[in-house]
Amino acid sequence: MSTLTCFKSYDVRGRLGDELNEDICYGIGRGFARAIEPKTVVIGYDIRPTSQALAGQLAEGLRDEGVDVIDIGLCGTEEVYFATSHYEAGGGLMVTASHNPIDYNGIKMVRAGSRPISSADGLGEIQALVEAGDFGPTKTRGSLEQQNPRDAYADRVVGFADVSTWRPMKVVVNAGNGVAGPAFDVIAGKLGAPVDFVRQHLTPDSTFPNGIPNPLLEENRAQTAELVLSKGADLGVAWDGDFDRCFFFDETGAFIDGEYVVGLLAGAFLGKHAGAKIIHDPRVIWALLDLMEAGGGEAVVSQSGHSHIKATMREVDAVYGGEMSAHHYFRDFMYCDSGMIPWILLIEHMSASGKKLSELVADMQARFPSSGEINFKLADKQPAIDAFEATYLPDAKGVDRLDGLSLDYGDWRVNLRQSNTEPVLRLNVEARGDRALLAAKVAEISKLITEA
């Protein structure tokens, strides 16, 4: 095959038909078997119309290389992570396009122990094997069996909760017709919590009648926010398509930016694990660093992206890691990200504090206002990067190039980085208690980027 554009930094993702199809998936199955050398592989898939067929071809490719396949069916990405370790498999493949457009699909991959696979650690080798296509004759066929690990998975998630501490509250949950609904229902049934769950779009539907589930987009937030308000709920929770990310709304319907959620969850863990190490990405950091210093924890910075976060967590044995993009990672969940564990921890944290969610984040938001991530789609990103460096680097008090370029000026801070997965520049700005300064710097830098 020619060069395959569906291979990205951390996964496989592409437009159906030309960039990703059943033939390519068959090749990926065989390539995965050759590169990773597993004896058994777990496969799962999301609700998109093509996902089951693509998963079937992955299984065919694996089996033709002599690998046994455990098919766990319709599920979320974290259920594949869980099942890979639960069944002691040599790898796991999840067919999902998550929040990408309707004409896309993709594959997320892990090796034994639910460890991530990236372009620098196995994915590049798989790509080379698929592009070469020289697999030769098939081996003795591997087996195929159906399994359902959801009950055991739900037990693991519920194990993060101490429901005896929960106070009664009302919580809106919106799955966006992705695959979160069935898993949520099992988890909620096991909790037996004094919580009234108001369910919204929990039935998986491949047509996505309420839009592609991606609550990070502002236009997708209204349905959750409005239901929180109309039902008088204490909290709103929404997931993306494969529910490895979750998003929160306070009792006023306001969306809570990811960096403040990381702060809340870090605080919850510090309450249980004194002096704990917490991993964070370098985009927006001041609120978390302040909280960690006050709480006696140790903040450890990592490059953005799940493979980097997970590797750093394992290196320092961190109990929790969080990214402002709504990925939350847990040591006691194979160091993997989960979209179900965070809302359980947040309800517990709200119960323990006796405060509303808006009250829990108000101090962080006031003392460390931030811009949220602003994305710029540019045909050529380098002129904007060069202009940014020329303008802002000389006067910076602190410079960090761990992930993009972070510049600290004392009263405000900025991070500009190229996306690992999309052709965009990502801008994040934060300030110390000065929203006017924040707004001015966002406008100033945005103008420079768009005019470069």
From TrEMBL:
It comes from the Bacteria. Keywords: Isomerase, Magnesium, Metal-binding, Phosphoprotein. GO terms for molecular function: intramolecular phosphotransferase activity; magnesium ion binding. Its cofactor is Mg(2+). Gene3D superfamilies: Alpha-D-Glucose-1,6-Bisphosphate, subunit A, domain 3 (3.40.120.10), Alpha-D-phosphohexomutase, C-terminal domain (3.30.310.50). Signal peptide: none annotated. Residues 7-134, 152-253, 257-365 form the Alpha-D-phosphohexomutase alpha/beta/alpha domain. Residues 373-445 form the Alpha-D-phosphohexomutase C-terminal domain. GO terms for biological process: carbohydrate metabolic process. The keyword Isomerase applies. CDD domains: PMM_PGM. Belongs to the phosphohexose mutase family. This is Phosphomannomutase. The lineage of its organism: Bacteria, Pseudomonadati, Pseudomonadota, Alphaproteobacteria, Rhodobacterales.
